[in-house]
């Protein structure tokens, strides 16, 4: 079993959308996660006309927009519930306007624990009740909630169109076996992110297969789950400028067999 290939624009931050679409076409990685930030072509400050123009560029470019990758932190105590829910919904509306089915959010708690979980549950339930049609919220395995069991603990208490992104690195780097992550995320899995690094401490992006993340085991777990979504490369050169350019990384396709 294989999956269609996608990449995040985190690896080509600031690149005009027409050039992103051309990169996708030329490499065969035809799905996109669009990083939403003030220094990107896509952000919540875009007008309705700008959103329509961006969608036209992407659709005419022959790519599939999978997600708007927000930096909303649903478990953070640094913002109020109202502020967090409003930010989540603003990014969900951007996803709708760009034709993306998902908006990515982070946990982002300053201190993990019951209070952080409760904040995330409360806010995700509130946002899910007001989502625009056709858009789901995906909580990523990341930061304060890196493991599958962390995400499942939250999502088991959430109703509505909310699922998860399995970023393969974070459960692995914190010692959660892939089999455990698989079982924990099984009821909630909508999307996956693939990457490779040298070690849990040395996280500069490496071309797939050149690091130590057990990608073969990851792919086998997805097959066992019957996963039918996209395989998205999150090339973190925004945070690791000494990494090779995304265009070079995209030359190395995942080996699923």
TrEMBL record:
It comes from the Bacteria. One of its GO terms (molecular function) is isomerase activity. InterPro entries: IolE/XylAMocC-like, Xyl_isomerase-like_sf, Xyl_isomerase-like_TIM-brl. Gene3D superfamilies: Divalent-metal-dependent TIM barrel enzymes. The keyword Flavoprotein does not apply. Signal peptide: none annotated. Keywords: Isomerase. The keyword RNA-binding does not apply. Residues 22-245 form the Xylose isomerase-like TIM barrel domain. This is Sugar phosphate isomerase/epimerase. It comes from Catenulispora pinistramenti.
